[in-house]
Write a structure and sequence with these properties.
Length: 231
Amino acid sequence: MARCTAPSRGHRTASAAADCPACGSRSRGYSSYQSYSPTYSSYSHNYSSGNTGTGSTGKSKPRWSSPGSSAYYTPSEIRTLTPVRESIERRSSLPDRRDIFLCHAWDDRKDAAKQLHDLLEDNGVSVWFSEKDVLLGSMLLREIDKGLSKSRMGIVLVTPAFLDRVKAEGIADKELSALLAQDLLVPIIHNTTYDALREVSPLLGSRSGLSTAEEPLDSVALKLAELVKLN
């Protein structure tokens, strides 16, 4: 039987272990595993920390997310927001555009809508906001259309007050369909549910978006800021 040379020569290096008549075969097998392991580790790191990598929760970063961003997205959010991002990129050459048009119910103007507006501006986003840009008493869809024509994308803050307004005024499916077809409109569900939205507007409710039931409003604002920024 071959005798191990470790007592006299040591096995501190891979070559010393390989030269040992007793341990050489095991060392070569281990060495082969080691040569593969760094490749796997490198792949794991790139997959989990890169822009397209997934985290431990199954969330990941889309291609437009900055490497240092703290925001992670669900697969559904990425599928929903990717067409919007592509539309934003196509409209990037249009001059004098606000980044986001914020559509909301009148009753939310000093509460949730103002909070979202401020969070977006804190993230460096220019916002078309009724308190600054829209005449009082204007028709909802008319102002959405006007705002979107001067903005790179639009968001609809869906709250209980918004649902009440939709019930009272109604939404023309044909007009709303034209807006949604441009992939420029993202619903933000706040203090209500998609089911409640679908009851009053099946068309808008069919479009996925972001919800504060899943993450706080400041995280929603960060994702919208990443979505619309081109640099």
